[in-house]
Fold this protein.
Amino acid sequence: MTASAILPDRGPGDRISAVFWRRPRVLLALLLAPPLLWLGIVYLGSLAALLLQSFYSIDEFSGVIKHEFTLKTYGDLLRPSNMDIIIRTLVMSAAVTLASVVVALPIAYYAARYARGRWKAVFYLGVMLPLWSSYLVKVYAWKLILAKEGILTWIADSLGVSFLLDALLALPSIGGSSLSTSFIGTWIVFVYVWLPYMILPMQAALERVPESMLEASADLGASPGLTFRKVTFPLALPGIIAGSIFTFSLTMGDYIIPQIIGTSANFIGMAVYQQQGTAGNIPLAAAFSVVPIVIMLIYLTLAKRAGAFDAL
C-alpha cells in the first residue's frame, strides 16, 4: 500500500498567483492601470483643463473670468506686445539650439570615436556632473561670472581685450551694460544649462555609425572632411534632431533664467508666470501656454519623420 501525496495548504499568495496565471490579461490590466491613470488624469487632464481655460476670457473691469467660450483671449494673444514675446522666445530657443549643436558636436564625436575605458567614464561624468547640481546654484553662479565685476570682465581687462567685450555689449538689441544684463548673457547660460541634453543623444547617434561605412568612404578616396559631411553627419542627424527637441523645448518653457540673467524683456514662460500670478489673467496665461505646445507638436511630428526618436 502506497502513501498518498500530501500537498501543503495553499496560502493567499499562491491563490492570487494562480488567478493571474489563468487570466494574464487581468495581470496586464493591473500593471498598466497606474501609468495610464497618471497619463490620462494628471497629464492629459491638466492639458485639457489648460486648453479649456484658454477659451475663456476675463472681464477687464472686474477681473472676473467669464466662463463663456470665446476666441477673444487668442485675439489678445495676437497683440503686438504679446507677439514680440513669442517671437523673442522662438529666436532665443533657435539660437540656443544652434549653439548647442556647434558646441556639442566635437565633444560627442570625440566620445563616440576615440574615448575608451577610463576616458569614456570621464566623459560621462563630465557631461552628467552639471545635471547633478542645483539649477538655481548654477544660474546664480553664472550671474556672478557674467557681472560687470565678474571674472570674465577681470580676464578681459587682464589680457587687454576689454575693448572686444565692450564692442560685444554695444551690439544693438542683444547687448547691455554687462553680460549679466544682456540677451548675450541669457543665451550663454541657456546653452550651458541645456548642453548635456544635446551631447548625450548626439553621442548615441554617432556611436551607431558603422565603422565599415567610414572605411568604405576612405577606401574610395574621400578625405576625412568629405566623409564627415557625406557619411557621418547625415547618419548622426537623427541624434542632433533628438537633442534639439530638448534644447528647444526647455528654452521655450524656462522662466527662471530670463528673470535672473538678462534684460527685463519677457519670454513665454515669464508671461505665463506673470499672467496667472500677478495679473490674475488665467485665460491669457493658458493661451500663452498653448503656443509652445502647438509648436512642439509640429516640431515632434517633423522630428519623428526624420527618425529622431530612434536616437533617444
